[in-house]
Amino acid sequence: MRERLALKYHLITLGCPKNKVDSDGIEMLLQGADYRAAAAAREADVLIVNTCGFLEAAKEESIGVLADLSRHKRRNQVLIAAGCLAQRNGQEVLARVPKVDGLLGTRRWMDILQLIGRIRGGKTARPLARYDLLGETSLTPGYGVPALLGDPGQEYTQPVPRPPVLGGSAYLKISDGCNAPCAFCTIPSFKGKLRSRPLEAVVDEAIALVQAGAKELVLVAQDTTDYGRDWGEANSLPRLLSALCRRTGDDMRWLRLMYAYPGHVSDELIEVMGREPKIVPYLDMPLQHGDPATLRRMYRPSRLEMVYDHIAKLRAAMPDIALRTTFIVGYPGETEQEFQGLLDFVRAIEFDKVGAFQFSPEPGTPAALLPDPVDEDVKAERYARLMEVQQPISLGKNQAQVGKQLAILVEGEGEIEGSRRPLLLGRSYRDAPEVDGLVLAPGVGGVPAGEMIEVYINGAMEYDLVGEPLGSETFSSIKPQAAQKPGRAPIGLV
Predict the structure, then answer these.
(1) Does residue 309 share a domain with residue 280?
(2) pTM of the full predicted structure?
(3) Are 76 and 11 in contact (CB under 8 A)?
(4) What is the CATH number for 268?
(5) What does R_g of the chain's alpha carbons equal in angstroms?
(6) Is-contact 62 70, C-beta < 8 A?
(7) What CATH number should be reported for the domain holding residue 448?
């Protein structure tokens, strides 16, 4: 009897870390059903794109990837659009990429095998019936059978199945959806209201990730600081953080918090962050603007005194804290005076890390209907001016690290440009994966990704630090230290 060949899948993930977590779950379910990963799309039986639909540019990127796969799609291949764009614009996806066979919503990733089974079961007739599992009313009436309705549940009550952790860092999603009314944001329209995962499910998944090799857990959600509000227990994040620190064991060194909302950074949260040695002194708090009038049009918290109070308390509790934020420039009605207010705010706070975006009107949002749009050239010019203001601040923050001893999580190894000398790449507690800078160690190689080592910082640039390892042993203590090493000179990078 001939052995049945295992089916293969090819998965492409677009968008934010929340999508990455869902893709990990999809992969583990497929591998548990004896599917094998295919490096190339042409080798796969099932093609899956976990799409992003947050911004128009992200939507077009997702459509482009789906269209490219469809152009080379074989007759018996299955093409599935999963994630945010499938949930938000399912009809448009099917209209623009007719060879898409199925849609999988943001809260139905755990039903990937069920969807594939239905699609493959319908391959006896042409044209193909299309299927969708979106978790709510079907976006594609008339295509095959209706969506399977109901509450998926599994994502919230059970640990998300995850693959082995490569590189020592893993994202941990603690909730989905969002209750914030931000005028520019599309997320609530397709992600829905906040839905927090049970504390025990989050802790169990964290333990499994650490056992799979994670030394750093990065907590993500649309708003991590709103965790628990949907079940009537606002400010539940400090309790979750304490449980994670207590129950994950010594192998977890760093716990990092992303996507905090101004106004939800409570005194209890700050106290826990300052007390628990596993929680790195780092906070990502997207503020979106620094002028009260612009913030009011954004439907964002506009009382800047509250932000200054948060920052003062955070820095008092954790003097070495690294603060990251993001801003939108060119929001409708943003005057030169309002933009100057943003620049003054940036100078006053002196954030360690700043990301910026030029406003993009998203259909269906209140911001898309606002009068007084800002000219595209003005948006670009204001973006450049904001970055010009932030760069010397960032450089100064990095220069303040010169002479200090930091732990870094090794991410990989490259080569110094123009030579064959190795270049070790890592991150300190001050750098979140994918969005912040690196610590570079010239001439150092052979340290596996995922190891933690101590580094003496001897150089600084606007976004990256330069250092040299202090020894071959991996870092054993947990909290980043600021030990001074006098008598050492920078290597010439400023």
Answers:
(1) yes
(2) 0.83
(3) no
(4) 3.80.30.20
(5) 24
(6) no
(7) 2.40.50.140
